[in-house]
Amino acid sequence: MGNNNIMIKSKLRKGLWSPEEDEKLLRYMLTNGQGCWTDIARNAGLQRCGKSCRLRWINYLRPDLKRGAFSPQEEDLIVHLHSILGNRWSQIAARLPGRTDNEIKNFWNSTLKKRFKLTVNNNNNNTPSPNITNNNCSDDSSFSDPNTNGIMMIMHLNEQQQYDNHLMAMSSSMCMDSSYSSSSTSSSISSMQQQQQQAAMVFTDQFNDPFSMLIDHNNNSNVPQCLMTQFGGMVEEGHNGNYGIIMGPNINKMGLERELCLPPLENDNSAPVLDVKRLNNHFNHHSIHQKVSKVEELFGFGNNNNNNYHHGQQQVENLKIGEWDLEGLMQDISSFPFLDFQVE
DNA sequence: AAATTCCCCAACCGCCCTAAG
DNA sequence: TCTTAGGGCGGTTGGGGAATT
């Protein structure tokens, strides 16, 4: 038995997925839907562990993934959410439809982190008070995870307002401007990918302009009572009279979503609810021999507007479950310059 | 054109949580 | 109550393409 397990494990493949493996997993998922990943790996005829299959599906094969570069609006939202949630990538991803936690994490670690570092350096040159301070400020750790290190991360209000300006633009462009998908992303994405994004926008619209909640920072009345009481309404005053939030060293231990009164996302399971019949329908109209790495092609997001519509509609249904949560979050966000994250 | 460096991102690793037995 | 397996998550790594020398 034990030897058998070892034998099986030793046969398991690692590393990059081949198109054939993608095809196997995709086919299996389309016909059977989700289940026990270990079984999926076995039944699909893959020499992979269940974990590997799950990761591949979530990060790459899922039909509702948005492709292409992050839009400036998405970037701002990531920055903003990260300032509140820290490195809770899955929770951030749950609020960015079509994006995976891995994708956001990579984007943060490569692009945003760097950009932020630059901004901080520039600000340091201009003002005596750093925007981000660190107990052990010497290197890249100056932008380390506030959740895991003993870092005091102070975001001043002027910087916060820059975000707000972006977010204000985002609230209108993401929810009202249909040109968003074509204008805001990398020029290299295909028209099909753009249409996927447009489909995504259909349900983004359903949030009733959630980002508008971000705009009114200076209105204390927006601060939820639970936040004021749980955090004692403490305000950190900076050198220039700016207010900021403090991310404490043990913030990860305090269960941020609880302390922030973030209700759990009902649709937090990043894996989508599959309409197997519908997907199969699309799937059967395409040659399985085509390179599966362009998985989205298999789902007919291309030229058929009806497909876009139904795809969007389905996602609307799925996402509406979490609508209240996002709004609640945004209420939290709207107040965060005045919050003090109490450290245990 | 070749060599080297940079850096993005896919995927693995390890830890934690939860449910089942 | 303890053990085990599976799933989820965040941190990290290394391959490989792009950029630079």
How is this fold's topology laid out?
Elements: H1 2-11, H2 19-32, H3 37-43, H4 50-61, H5 72-85, H6 89-94, H7 101-126, E1 153-155, H8 157-176, H9 180-183, H10 191-204, H11 225-230, E2 236-237, E3 243-247, H12 256-259, H13 276-284, H14 305-320, H15 323-335
This protein binds a DNA duplex (21 and 21 nucleotides) through residues 14-17, 36-38, 50-52, 54-56, 59-60, 87-90, 101-103, 105-107, 109-111, 145, 147-148, 269-270.
Subcellular location: Nucleus
Domain HTH myb-type: 9-61, 62-116
Keywords: DNA-binding, Nucleus, Repeat, Transcription, Transcription regulation
Structure description:
The protein is 51% helix and 3% strand. It is built from 15 helices and 3 strands. It has a 3-stranded antiparallel sheet with strand order 1-3-2. Helix 3 crosses helix 4, helix 5 packs across helix 8 (157-176) and helix 10 (191-204) runs parallel beside helix 14. Residues 1-9 and 126-344 have low confidence and may be disordered. The structure holds a DNA duplex (21 and 21 nucleotides).
The first-to-last residue Cα distance is: 47 Å
Tally of separate helices? 15
Strand content: under 5%
Give the neighbour order of strands across the main sheet.
1-3-2
Task: Provide mean pLDDT, rounded.
Answer: 51
Characterize the biggest β-sheet: 3 strands, antiparallel
Structural class: mainly alpha
The level of helicity is: 40-55%
- Any idea what the radius of gyration is? 22 Å
Q: Which stretches are low in confidence, meaning pLDDT under 50 for 5 or more residues running?
A: 1-9, 126-344
Overall 3D geometry?
elongated
Pfam families: Myb_DNA-binding
Domain Myb-like: 9-61, 62-112
Keywords: DNA-binding, Nucleus, Repeat, Transcription, Transcription regulation
Subcellular location: Nucleus
